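Budget justification note: compute hours in this period were largely spent on complex prediction jobs such as the one shown. Inputs:
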Amino acid sequence: MLDDRKKKVLQAIIEEYINTAEPVSSGSLVNNYGLNFSSATIRNEMADLEKSGYLDKPHTSAGRVPSAKGYRLYVDELLRDNDISLEEIKYISEKLETKVNEIEDLTKITANTISEITHYTTVSIGPKTNKQLIEEIKFILLGSRMLMAVILTDTGLVKETIIKFDEDITDRQVETLNYMFNNKLKGQPFDKIDRPLEEFLFDEMTYSVNVIKPIIEQIKKVLQEDEKIYLEGANKAFDLPEFNSLEVAKNFINVLDTKELIADMLNSGFAQDINVYIGEENENDKLKDFSIVTFKHKIGDKDLGTIGIIGPKRMDYSKVISVMKYISKKLNDNNQNN
Amino acid sequence: MLDDRKKKVLQAIIEEYINTAEPVSSGSLVNNYGLNFSSATIRNEMADLEKSGYLDKPHTSAGRVPSAKGYRLYVDELLRDNDISLEEIKYISEKLETKVNEIEDLTKITANTISEITHYTTVSIGPKTNKQLIEEIKFILLGSRMLMAVILTDTGLVKETIIKFDEDITDRQVETLNYMFNNKLKGQPFDKIDRPLEEFLFDEMTYSVNVIKPIIEQIKKVLQEDEKIYLEGANKAFDLPEFNSLEVAKNFINVLDTKELIADMLNSGFAQDINVYIGEENENDKLKDFSIVTFKHKIGDKDLGTIGIIGPKRMDYSKVISVMKYISKKLNDNNQNN
DNA sequence: AGTTAGCAATCAAATACAAAGAGTGCTAAA
DNA sequence: TTTAGCACTCTTTGTATTTGATTGCTAACT
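Corresponding output:
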């Protein structure tokens, strides 16, 4: 366990490093952080902190840099609270009042807001569909050979898809489709849809296979479709000094380009609504130079999607987490009447 | 006008430079390009080509590098034809046979194919909507307070949007909406939709404003919405040696992040279906280090969207253009019965 | 007149070396 | 327990030197 002064020193080092991106020296701490000890004393503390693994040293004659363990302690115990200005609060409030008709849009707006305020890159993904139940399926005829299927879930999410045919479809057929599909699929969860659809195809062979088959294929496809991932402020990262290393910059682009990796990252284990993964704590090795804060975005119990912030290990965790907490609160206040 | 040998030399220099990304020396041309002259002769030709502006010299003791003017001549007159292997043809054919239900998907697949084969980054945008005519609008009630509007154009493009209400909507109302909107808007072009909608709002004030107004707003919004831009293979660029310059890499990310710039670029003047912009030829200064090839992607007269390839000035124009031409041909062959 | 061998001149890139400067770790004293 | 003092370490910066590739020019050759 660290004593109080050690924690203070660690906190000062981390905050200084977050600000400057330069290894922090004992001298600069004495000058700028009101620690009423000589640099030699601080040096002793720093040596201890390094021995316990909270700090790293790039080389003998440089200052200290926080290790992942150091950041972890900082995030868990030392965060400044509510690190967010009045202007920022105003900006957030305005953005969140934008009227939206689709859940994805709200997630996008929130991700954009976070990116604007924190100056980090965000990635976001819509609400997970696979646990939701199908409330209703509607088929609509567009022209004579094009059908749109609209699928509505119990939480109000809407998915739609278009199916084209080589033969004309009649209004009568559409009616039948509506009736039959709702019969089979209503109340089914998205991720277990395969079975009912197969049974269905088998049962209804009397119905023209040319019509039924493409419909089923397309619906399966849409429901299993990878969630779309949205990116905000990818170029912001390049203003940070750590991205002057080509190695790091390349890695970053690579990560952002690997959709599966991001999806994994956003969907991985959620103990809390806000989760912090620091550098090597990330499971994927490509992420070792970055920190990620994920934010499960919801109103009450209703899942609105997940937003991830990806930045350097030297991320301003305090700001990021404050913003997320504020948004979460605001969103629930705004909608408590829903 | 350049004589035949000068053209041969220029072509050899450009192709060598495209391959190696290193300034090309007189000696290497003699060794690798079967030019039956001594390096001194080639040197004289190179000096002439430089004087006429087709070549640049990084410094006195380096080889030569093509200038924008040099690339331009190459693209206009010296391209190798049909620079595309059998395997590549096979790969393209397979990819293009993927069945799609929406035009945007086809554009995405094509963009992806081009990116895979050329190893360059592609950006793409769906077909332009503003010239299209509204064929039909359908309203569908989802639940009791959510309406979906589906808009169908004369060329078969579909746009849909969701509108939420604070009050219940009845089936009867939906019927009326369908009738009224189709009456007013059928046959109208997308980009001139404002006027009819305003008249409409004015005419039908008897109808509940709470219902009509949000619908009109949302429809206007969707129709004027910026086209979505899709990106393929952004990280591929970082394997190219020119992206070892942080300056260039940053610029590249910046360009890709500026949606308006890309939209401009994809929509700008089309003399031909395939257009090449080399380095400084691009209007926007940010693009001065890159070349862009745009490809208006269509079947017959039907616009399918536009695809842009963005790469270094040292792009393999021959390959890129061959691939585009082949895809264009293939697409029209596949669908000549449509 | 066109071509080429030969060679000095040029310049970036690599290598080597020498300070300079920032910061630490340790010792001994307060 | 704290701290002043100082030697030690290691990066950074600057400067000079060498190396090597390539050109441009001249004079000879076809």
